[in-house]
Write a structure and sequence with these properties.
alpha+beta; eight-stranded mixed sheet; three-stranded antiparallel sheet; 4 helices; MoCF_Sase_C; pyridoxal phosphate binding
Length: 180
Amino acid sequence: MTAQVLALHRSQTHSFSKSAMPQLNLLAGLGVEGDVHCGETVKHRSRVAQDPTQPNLRQVHLIQAELFEQLSRQGLQVSPGQMGENLTTQGLDLLALPVDTVLSIGDSARLRVTGLRNPCGQIEQFQAGLLAAVLERAADGRLIRKAGIMAVVLNSGLVRPGDAIRVLLPPLPHRALERV
């Protein structure tokens, strides 16, 4: 299966879920036009409280649709946009990508992967059992975060459902994703 955009979402407020959109305008260095997290510096409230001058490494949130299928098998019903992602993808293991991977989407948009989304308590408030399902512990004790990845916009462009996603890996050695 070719990696592609399945669905698009944004919200102008700090709501947990985001509304479906027919297209998104990605703005270089800022994020999703019209989304509450658009900007050069951090917009997530917990990050703003720590240091409002931090660079915004969480401009765009991506989740793979395959996660929703996995959650469904566990009895949890989650649809695209409900976990607050901007782009729902299909056919690409986002969690396996290294830091600094470039995702080329549509005619001109390019994203640089910065790290993993760190799931918070809002996920559990949205649906009981969801936090444990997206934040597992491996046998060696390390946390496995499955709530998607974060990226910054390198090149502006419109993205639409059905757009192909091309993956450009960074030079070796690759660095594994960590929470941002």
